[in-house]
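Hello Y.,

Per our agreement to keep a running log of every chain we model this quarter, I'm adding this entry. I've kept the format consistent with earlier entries: sequence first, then predicted structure.
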Amino acid sequence: MRKIELYDTTLRDGAQSEDVSFSVEDKLRIAEELDGLGIHFIEGGWPGSNPRDVEFFQKAKKLRLKNSSLAAFGSTHHASNKASDDPNIKSLLRSGAPVITIFGKSWDFHVSHALKISRAANLDLISNSVSYLKKRVTKVFFDAEHFFDGYKANPEYALLSLKAAAEGGADLLVLCDTNGGMLPQDIGEIVKSVALNFSVPVGIHAHNDSDCAVANSIMALESGASHVQGTINGLGERCGNANLVSIIPNLKLKLGYDCVSLQNTKKLKVVSRFVTEIANLRHFKRQPYVGDSAFAHKGGAHVNAVLKHSGTYEHIRPELVGNYRRVLVSDLAGKSNVLMKAKEYNLKIESDSPKIKNIVRELKELENQGFQYEGAEASFELLMKKQLRLHKKFFTLIGARVIIEKRKEGEEPISEATIMVEVGGKTEHTAATGNGPVNALDNALRKALEKFYPQLKDVKLLDYKVRVLTAGKGTSAKVRVLIESGDEEHKWGTVGVSENIIEASWQALVDSIEYKLLKG
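Predicted structure for the entry above:
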């Protein structure tokens, strides 16, 4: 089985993403997750560029990494300095990283326009930098910046840049599609040419500006490369880098390469979500392999087939990457969807039960009114339990009122909700303010019910979305409210629909509370 080295640059290249900023502590935590995933090399940052990366490498010395080696990133020495006197080279060595990755120019266009030195002088920079570092650290990797563009423009000089690194003692020649504009056929042909001309191992570093970074990386590995660089979730400059979360299962599960263990591929969804959370980004639900929608089935015919054999509409078993199958419920749903959801909810119901038809019929009627259960599965579970007579009514609304008062121009309005509910023959009448009418209503309802159901103190409203359903009716339009709630362990979604946004919100809030109380 052919061995492929995985090199993660989330902490350096991924941190250059727009809207992403990792603290030192963030980077240390991510490094530990990457080590647990079985990544071979973790690029910690560029210690010559900022104090944060200097601090990271100092603190990273205390990490007990079991699978990964840390790499420090930097450039070749400046043309005005010797390698031994160059501040960037010195900072790389001070990092204490056993692996150093330096980039150099392989496109003659950059040599003349960016560095403004001769082509020969650039080759000396590469050779001298690699040679100096190689005598002082375990491994030196050379990133040939803009290599593919350089090869297309002047293949002879691009290959000379690799030769300079190889003669300097580089352990790896990494071919970079820095502008991200290459297509797979370009990558394949060029990597084959390089692999034939050099005995030093070849790697690939692809950016995603043409949406081909994963395909380009795989093509490079199929064409002779043995090392691939990328980031978790494809984070990176501009459109991002090659996504290791897709590359790893493609290599391991589809091509049979030795990169991480099968046990570790099952960690992919967890690691993907961990990095998303640390980066304070929303997880991309349609992300291949690990997204919430990656193994979600909506059409009745699809669900029926998947029930018989998962391979009918799934390219792998979702468990192999730590994901799971989801059956969505909508007006496209049929008997198979409902049966699978019943199994998921641990509800016992026979396949020939007339209650199945009743549930499907009610579902289609409600969706015709504007309800949507794909993002509100807690509401759908309640719907099923009501049909199966497994639902319990925990409280009865006697009355509710919401007041919005704006007292002064330029000041935010004040929202207050008053509510009266009956629980077990006892009446509770209370009021609460909030940041807007829905928040006030939510606060008042919880205040009234927590006396009877203290477990509601754990529930938080995590997200609130409103969508106008009937275009052209202006402020009288019907709206759909989707609410995401959660406690210490779980999250759930509920839905409400009405011409009145407060009523739609009330429906979703009540479902959220009833779902929590039914679950205990």
